[in-house]
Amino acid sequence: MTLKVYADNAATTRVSDEVLEAMYPYFSIHYGNPSSLYSLGREAKIAIEKAREQAAALIGAEPNEIIFNSGGSEADNTCIGVYARFVAPKKGKHVISTKIEHHAVLHTLDALKKDGFEVTLLDVDEYGLVSPEALKKAIRSDTSVVSVMFANNEIGTIEPIAELAKITREGGAVFHTDAVQAVGHVAIDVKEMGIDMLSLSAHKLYGPKGTGAMYIRRGLYCPPLIHGGGQENKRRAGTENLAGIVGLGKACEIAGAGLEKEKERVTALRNRLVEGVLKIPYTRLTGHPTQRLPGNASFCIEAIEGESLILMLDMFGIAASTGSACSTGSLDPSHVLMAIGLPHEIAHGSLRFTLGHYSTDEDVDYILEKLPQVVDRLRAMSPVWDDYIK
Amino acid sequence: MTLKVYADNAATTRVSDEVLEAMYPYFSIHYGNPSSLYSLGREAKIAIEKAREQAAALIGAEPNEIIFNSGGSEADNTCIGVYARFVAPKKGKHVISTKIEHHAVLHTLDALKKDGFEVTLLDVDEYGLVSPEALKKAIRSDTSVVSVMFANNEIGTIEPIAELAKITREGGAVFHTDAVQAVGHVAIDVKEMGIDMLSLSAHKLYGPKGTGAMYIRRGLYCPPLIHGGGQENKRRAGTENLAGIVGLGKACEIAGAGLEKEKERVTALRNRLVEGVLKIPYTRLTGHPTQRLPGNASFCIEAIEGESLILMLDMFGIAASTGSACSTGSLDPSHVLMAIGLPHEIAHGSLRFTLGHYSTDEDVDYILEKLPQVVDRLRAMSPVWDDYIK
Amino acid sequence: MYSEKVMDHFANPRNMGEIPDADGVGVVGNMKCGDIMKIFLKIEDNIIVDIKFKTYGCGAAVATSSMATELVKGKSIEEALKLTNSVVVEALEGLPSAKIHCSVLAEEAIKSALIDYCKRQGIDPTPIVGCSGDCANCENHNRE
Amino acid sequence: MYSEKVMDHFANPRNMGEIPDADGVGVVGNMKCGDIMKIFLKIEDNIIVDIKFKTYGCGAAVATSSMATELVKGKSIEEALKLTNSVVVEALEGLPSAKIHCSVLAEEAIKSALIDYCKRQGIDPTPIVGCSGDCANCENHNRE
Ligand SMILES: Cc1ncc(COP(=O)(O)O)c(C=O)c1O
Ligand SMILES: Cc1ncc(COP(=O)(O)O)c(C=O)c1O
Q: Which of A188, A223, B381, C143 is 20 to 30 A from residue C50's alpha carbon, by CA?
């Protein structure tokens, strides 16, 4: 099964050639420890500071507001878990988030609950949108952090971040957003939007896995999750992932330069894909019809189960994903599909294509050619389908 | 100042060509997310499991006892900080470590202290050795973790780990060792030595920065530091640093295959370097004369200051390091040099060469040719030196 | 991760389909849990001469259906009743632990079809099958 | 990280050495802290006609010594007394914050040598220098 169409860019992306080329010398040539005093170390330090500028520029931040780390999960754990524990003595033990966050957020919140925190998870509507009104009602004097993801990884819905951030500020709390899926794909300006903290991850924008960053607004102190050396202005210890950081910086630069054009191109591809898939009977789009990530095309296909769908698409060289129960190893389909109100039997048939920089018109054609065949084959196997065609 | 001799392998190492070659395809060809169901994802998962076997084999562990993460600092924070907090309710809030640990350990202990833990830091003798007798006396019924580094990063002293682990087990506590400097350089068998948890980092053994691992003995549960997805058997969340892990695995395999021969070769180089450097008057070796890491040659050179030494050696293309106060940005020289009882004025002149796989006879010759010139020049500048030659 | 055998049975399921004039039909599982298996039997002289399945579910659900039908085809009813989920798992060269329940479902589906056959023949299935066939309310076949 | 100017003055220190028959000598700092600067002055007609330094310390200590001596060489005593550490820092195109104290030390070393000169000439240095020259016990020259 050789790969023909990679349509799972929300899971991870291919490191782009330019990014890899930028990273390459930092493994075996400029391999110095950025903390070292001699030239090889100083050059490494300069490379990291350049990457910091590149990352900052992409989201409208100042370089010294960027802290590099090992990825989106670490960023979420730090900005929410560490920060909430740190401010709890003066501010209180209440945290607000939503039902559709990534597990890196939800499980951080679970850990907080074990430590006596109270957590309010906001509902979303059928499109996955968080209601600013609901946030206004939920926020309290002891609320320290409000964390709402910029865009959802499963259904692609983009949240009204600026509005939510404003309500949070007015409520006297700090606003964090998990923007792992959004950074590099839609325009973000942390200052304009009033974001206090933000998580991002390189491998979602054609950078390497295992490198990420947090934006922490100047003046806001968040202690380190990882204690040790004085790296990252004492905010995150550990020898820096030099090549990874250089790669993240380059990926941010590239993403920033091509953002609007790329967004338009990918959105057009996505729209054609959505249109085509919806021609298959008993199929529905999940997420918001327009307020969504450019590459995200997510569906529920009735009478078949998502994991089978993924495995059979793989047999045709198509890489896609599902939020079905079987794929998660639990009894329930993804919490996101539950939160938007889908019944289990519909959610089991979830299917997500996420297009990206390397996606082409031919990719969409190929998916639209093969998907109906795969669906037909699985429906022919399905005892449930008989009820539909009766 | 082009690099002529890299003699700072304890700070970081060059990624070896074989390691880089192994990693390379995992950026842009086999770039799948290891959690994905389709072939590209499954292949990634297989690559990680292979690396797990390679890492396990190097230290005598079972593959499922290896948990990959972002490096040595994260491993120390997890095995000590997270574990101690987790077992505190049943076991108690006392932790034992030593005065010569890396900051990743010491600052993790500081954080524990803030949470009401009691920390005993064992002294070391003039060679940097921890006394098993002292541990025996320090261990209590409420001691949960004893953490002693396998080998010190500054002076290279190798601790009597098996003995310390035995005392710890008899005392009913769990034994962790920060083996970041030792793994791949000296033989380690976690089972034989009775080690419960161990930290290691790829970039100290010709692997990439930003990838590390913990060994956690089967049957011992340590909760994740980073919460989120179910990666690493639910012990460490976050999309795996695929290429980094493949690189770590390969580095472990190579290190294991050549360990004894390489140890002998590097030790011989080191001994010649030590002999040569000690010919410079008013110069002393730091650390244990024989029980030390193969590559470590660390000294104190009187009447000159370490940072100047490093900068001037760099002008000759030699990369080395120091534990002087100026280099650390604080008023005090390194805590390790203090712990072995050196007075401030001696410790300020600390100089560390750490040889490694790429070190040659010519490197040693070059250092032995240039170092005396550099020392002479700095001593000629030093108002203190006048007192020596009077 | 699935074995090659599982992938083979998923990609090329044996005995997939229906038997319009089946002598026994069994259905187990439900939509909510995401697995449904339906088994069709053709029995002549106590021998399973034909068997077909239809399955809604994950890769393991399809593969266990395929393998289980293969394992009992041509067997006597008594032999077929001896089929346990672990035999199916073994024949598939293993299943991820989260998927073991699929193999249990396959065992139950075949039993359920055999019970239906017995009932149609006017025979009390309990002594033969060892249970009433009311899997949903049964404690003996502990579904994981 | 150091500026190129700092590295230049470290690699090629100006005025390094001693003046055997100096008219004023000042020493500040101590071994324990890791910085010692010694300044030698030759003064003719109120003008610093020659100046040399010896320094034990880090790169910044050497570079600030070098730069400070350059800045006061050929100046009158009054002009030399106007030298502040921030002028030295600026001339070196900046210093890392942890190294600012080196520039303070350089300022103090020159003052100390001028005070020694005054004392040797039998002049009370306090009104001229603005302090007693007892830097170790002084609150005015706040060392970082
Ligand atoms: C929305 C969201 N948050 C967080 C993460 C975690 O990022 P990482 O895998 O880099 O830890 C992901 C992706 O995995 C994500 O999609
Ligand atoms: C003894 C020791 N422990 C821990 C670390 C931290 O490892 P890392 O930089 O991979 O986080 C290092 C090196 O930096 C070390 O030498």
A: C143
